[in-house]
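Holo model, iron/sulfur cluster. Inputs:
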Amino acid sequence: ASNEVDKWTKAPCRFCGTGCGVLVGVKDDKVVTVKGDKKNPVNKGFLCVKGYSLGKLMNATENRLTKPQIRRNGRLVETDWETALNLIAKKYRKYIDNYGPDSVSIYSSGQSTVQEGYVLSKLMKGAIGTNNLECNARLCMASAVGGYLTTFGKDEPMGCYDDIENADLFFIIGANMAECHPILYARVVRRVRNSDVKVIMADPRETRTHKISDLDLFMKPGSDVALLNAISYVIIDEGLIDEDFINKHTHLKQNGKEINLDEFKSFLKDYTPKKAAKITGLDPKDIRKAARMFADPKRESLSLWTMGVNQQVQGVFINNAIHNLHLLTGKICRPGSSPLSLTGQPSACGTAREVGTFTHKLPAHRIVANKKHREEMAKHWGIDVDKIPSKPSYHTMAMFEAINRGDIKALWVTTTNPAQSLPNFNKYRKGLEDVFLVVSDVYPTETTKYADVILPSAMWVEKEGVFGNTERRTQHFEKAVDAPGDAKPDLWQFLEVARKLGYGDLFPYKDHPEREIFEEYRECTLGTGKDLAPYDAYRQKRGLMWPVVDGNETARRYVAPDDPYVKEGIEFYGKPDGKAIIYARENKGPAESPDEKYPFVLSTGRVVEHWHTATMTMQVPELKKAVSETYVEIHEDDARRLNIRSGDIVKLISRRGELELKAKIGGRGVPQPGMLFVPFFDRKRLINLVTIDAVDPSSKEPEYKICAVKMRKA
Ligand code: SF4
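Output:
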């Protein structure tokens, strides 16, 4: 009750990219309760089971890392901060001096704060002079970035969550919103109560999200581009396009060449509903129906997607093909009509995409390959422009390959758990054993097992920071309580090591580093189209959607009067001529298709109770009890054929590894016959020993959603 609370402080939820607002109740330096923030426009007071568990999480200190540790004679032993940080600085300095800046690396997270990401970018690119900075967001939304960049010339969605309340048709593809974005799903459900509002679900697996579906498209895994092209075909074939919009606001391209609408039509002839039916396994009538529902001129159409789309080797192409539907019909940049990709992590947008903790990026959506961008950041940082290498070095999977080869000799992992989350992990284990590995985290993880130094981190409201969510909303949180033991914020850890490496001049923050760093970052966002507001604005408000110009946030980009960068009508100003691109993309299928030897398609994903590798959620007794171990979902036809019952132990075997799991037939998810689904949260049963590390050639995001396996009773 509020009379038992000394103070309430607002914060975005620690878990997913939805960015729900919570109020944290504190008494005697303890979080005593957490509740939904009714004033936050994202969730209006509602939370999902993870959000409601935040209070319990903050008090789950029993297993917390509270002391720095270093490895001595093969064993991790407790030490003090000075010893641990000196060791890191000494090793990093030695490798930089002996082998060059590219011999060291940092692997960060979409769960780091904006300030932490900015400091890492400045440290690696501006001070050390290497692009060996990557981020786990590579594993979840790099393909969405690739889609927005190629189609519109700028990353991140043009729409916002309020589009949900304005949409008449939801096209949900590759997203189990009911479990992975439950609060947004609840907003969709409330909207769907209006009987005129329809939902199309395109997914190979039946999930809880299907409860609201009006049209189910259970396509074969890896056939998304074929389905989307077939919908485009019908939209054009039945005259459902907005030709005026296409002429005014788009170009069409195939294999890098300009094409006209007729040529695009010819390209799509390979994807008539009948032909696409062979690739997708769908009924051609359903494809036509979906196209008519989407393109109905009376409806506002909102596309929503996430990892089911992004985690494929055709992830960028699928994103492009979704954008095509909106551009062909002109259903974009207006309330209710938008392609809105859903982000996984709480600050995958704010920290990974916007600050740019990827090898190829610089702050405020700049890229290292662009000379002007390097010059702008060099000026901003007060360094020589030649310090920033002009070529990206390693994307995530390539970085771990470089570690395997010994080309990278030191790795600092912050707020993420690659020993559980990297696909095909057997291949990368040796590298983690050999590299000088620093891990900053709050609890022991699979990755800390390999660490030479473990740094105990402050968690969420034990520190101050800023997150950026899916709808471009930047949200601030204050420090509410002290971290347990000697745990310290990652930001403090980065700044200390930067100073010990001799870069103190570049990191002069003193009184209030979080504010000073944010203001420094903000300055380089102004005039870029991603303008941020002064720090205090975020302390007061429930977040603001960028660009924020003259104190006003932007609900919808590229359209006047919402977007201050557009004078009139619509302008996709990420492109030199203000026009977006409709791409003719071919369906190429997955990297590894099932065959006689490995006849099943394996897909991995999440359950609502657990956050990613469950480092935090397994500490909450109720969440642990609700789903304590992972399992493999099997279609009943396959189970019957193989004489498998729910609860039997089965073995999944791929070309890369194997794993024993409990079988589950029926329940919260039902994959199609020939498909298996395994949640990846369970550290005792690492499904990433089995998955494939093939990546999208452009986004470099791995194909977690499809690999070939065989299954037998154990
Ligand atoms: Fe937190 Fe996401 Fe649940 Fe909202 S939907 S309460 S942000 S985990």
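The pocket of iron/sulfur cluster is lined by residues 13, 15-16, 18-20, 43, 47-48, 50-51, 181-183 (CB under 6 Å). The longest helix spans residues 81-99.
Archived with the compound record.
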